[in-house]
Structures are given as structure tokens and as C-alpha cells.
């Protein structure tokens, strides 16, 4: 296949990937913390939370990167008797469900869970407000075991229950890993790219998933290279490079606001991430890597980008620029997470 065909296929591939969102739905009793959990998964305050319940009647859909988080209204309430509810929400169009509860576990949730399982859907139980779990004279482990046994009894089989606290962030790393493990590989990559990392292992998975995108975008930018990079005799599609850089930054949650609030020792790296994310910055990086041929590491990506693109003049340069930016974003995110986790770094 020629360059033109490779580029058309790659463009379609990127487009399809972007359109195929990972859909995660949350259901459970009012006030159990569904909206708070959405904010934790995304790593930004995207959903409205509060002590008063505005009894949601419509599903609220929150889009974040490659994720669609669906905040479902109460199932089994008078307004939504179970059948009408099922007709309306088409669970088969959703990839994964989280049954969120706090305090007492409700039978309506079990009924919905069972129906989801019958339809072959993935559903995980999340006991939120772990920080509130307390009873005089009993240990937290005893209380957890009791809750898990209650869930198992109602469902009719042992079920893993994820105990989390949106307040202390305890258990969120395990939940995020559990969600990822339950998904098929292509969706795992989406999840790794879009969800906030609570562990260094997740951050590594994020890097791997982003790297794959870098090759795709770099390939397309090189194949579409109409605008010559000044001083370099190679054209690169700058709008594609710009999109790639913005997506990498977003995947690591490195918003301008977050970067500008960094502690002084991380600020230089933060500024680099912002500066190289501009059109001028990207141009500088491209020039820096001009003449760089695609390295041997490209090998496993050739089937993805195609032979013609892998051999294109600007490909080595666009890949190197993208990877350099990915490394910067990764390093910054790693330093931020290490601080959050209280890990000391040797100077
Ligand atoms: N202590 C504690 N409070 C929490 C936790 N998670 C959420 N909350 C609080 O619980 C209240 C309800 O949280 P929301 O996230 O709005 O709950 P929701 O399930 O979306 O509620 P509705 O949309 O009304 O159904 C808010 O005041 C939150 O701050 C937690 O882990 N621990
Ligand atoms: Mg809510």
C-alpha cells in the first residue's frame, strides 16, 4: 500500500478510536457518592456533588477524554419501575457498571445487579464512604467482611466488594485496577489513558497506551505533511501534532491550572510541558529531531501505521517529538503522584 492509502486508513483508525468511547455507568442510592466517585475516577471536579439530593430523573452523561460516565437515576423507585427503567437505559450499550452504595445495602440495587449479570454485563460493587465505616467494639475488617457477606447473600454468590473513600482516597487505586482488569484489552487502553492514575503502575500503563497513540498521530502528521517545518526540508501536519500533544497532556491530567499551582521545584518541568504544548514549542521540538530516522523501536508499530508511513521522511522526527513530549508529561505526572503517595525521591 502507498502513503496515501496508509494515511487514509490511519485517519479512519484514529477517528474510529475517538468515537468508540468507553461507557461506564454508576447506579445506587441517592447520596451514596456516585458523583463524587466520577470526580475521583476522572481526577477533576466534573460532576456536581452535594449533601442535598436533587433526585436525578435523567441519566447524566459526563464526557471526559475517551470516557463517558453515565450517572443513572434510581432504579426501582416509583418514578422508574424496573421494566420502564431497563427499556429506557439499554444496558447493553454500556461497557461496565458500578453499583455504588454507602450505609445499608439496598435490595433494589441487587435486583438491578442480577438483571445486568443476566444480560452478560460487567458490574462491580463499590462500598463508598469507607471513612465512615465504624461501629463500637468492632474492627474495620470485621465490618467489611459483614458487608461482603451481606452482598453475597443478596446476590446469591460471593462477590468482590471494593471498599473506597472518596474523602481519604483509600481503596481508589484497587478500584481503578479492578475496573481496568474487568475490561477487554482495547478498552483497557482507553481506560488507562483517560482515568486518573492512583498508582505508579497505572501511570506506566498510561504511558504505554499513549505511546501507541503517538505512533498513530506521528504517522498521520508525517503522511499529511504539507507545511514544511522552517529550516527543515520536510513537511508535517501541525494541527495533528497539536492535537497529539494536547491529548497526551490531558491524559496525564496536566491542565494549565494544575501546572500553575505546582510547588516551586516542579515548576520548571511544568512550564516546559506548557511551553512545548504550543505551536511554537512543537515546531522547536520538530527542528530538534529533524533528520532523525525512525528507530528500531518502530518495529512493533509498523503493522499499525503501515510500511509506507514508517518509511516516510518526517516519521522519525514526528515520533521523536511526540515521545519527547510524552516523556516530559510522564515525568511530571510521576513526580506529582509520588508526592501524593508520600514517596521520597532521591535527589
Ligand atoms: N465521608 C464521606 N463523604 C462522602 C464520600 N463520598 C461522597 N461523600 C459525600 O456524600 C454526599 C453525597 O455525595 P454525591 O457524590 O453527591 O452522591 P450521589 O450518589 O451522586 O448523590 P445523588 O446525585 O444525590 O444521588 C456529599 O456530601 C459528598 O461530599 C466519602 O467517601 N466519605
Ligand atoms: Mg449525583
From TrEMBL:
Coiled coil location: none
UniProt GO molecular function: GTP binding; hydrolase activity
Protein name, UniProt field: GTP-binding DUF697 domain-containing protein
Domain IRG-type G: 20-185
Species this protein is from: Cohnella rhizosphaerae
Pfam name, any one: IIGP
Annotated CDD domains: Ras_like_GTPase (cd00882)
Record-level GO cellular component terms: membrane
Entry keywords, A to Z: GTP-binding, Hydrolase, Nucleotide-binding
InterPro entries (alphabetical): G_IRG_dom, Immunity-related_GTPase-like, IRG, P-loop_NTPase
